[in-house]
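Session log. Operator J.P. requested a structure for one protein chain; no other inputs attached. Running the standard single-chain path with token output.
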Amino acid sequence: MKIVSWNVNGLRAVLGKGALQRFIEDEAPDVICLQETKAKQGQAEVDFAEYEEIWNSAERAGYSGTAIFTKQKPLSVRFGFPQEIEAAVDGWEDAFGDARKEGRVLTAEYEDFFLVNVYVPNEKDDLGRLKYRELTWDKALLAYMKQLDMEKPVLVCGDFNVAHEEIDLARPKQNEGHAGFTKSGRQGMTNFLAAGFIDTFRELHGDEVKYSWWSYRGGARQRNVGWRIDYFLASERLREQIVAAEVLDGVMGSDHCPVMVELR
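Structure written below.
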């Protein structure tokens, strides 16, 4: 089973370039999880007959949003975090909104695992969302992952908006303490791994350097001055089923490239 995650930075834009159509034709994934769709169902001319469409769009037009296109119909679908998770985390209903309003979490249940598609809020250049990310969002996501993992194994994919270690970005010294490479943001990823979830790319590729996002400024992609901020995290007991985990950095169409896992 081939599962792909891609922050398309506007589904209508990537469809207009023909990039998503070409990618699906070339790779034929069984499931594709999209982030930053910036559209509601029906606003984008999606025509992939083999796939069922599941959307979790933001209330705000042209902003955020996730979607799952899947060949196999899920057993169930869940939108956002459960209310008990939200209620247990301080500051959830703060001025920045939440996962429900911004369409940031979409879960599909399959027979052998849960697939969670996430678009994690960034910390903002002025770090205005840092405390929200650290004290609210990462805690809620980890609690949700643990809750699901009690039922069956979990595969979590998406744009986590953090480079975990220095190897995960081209210029760690210059970016230390900046959005996407703050101490608390990195600790959030460490907490996911400490809770028993594995970074599938690192698990299979060790210290190989690959990036999944590049700034549009300064020819960053051409010079490969990038960041690895898109991940597949998996329950440890899925390890033996993961036969491939790739960063598909040759795929164009967005400022992110797709990442992929293949399950036996």
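Operator note: Residues 48 and 131 are 40 Å apart (CA to CA).
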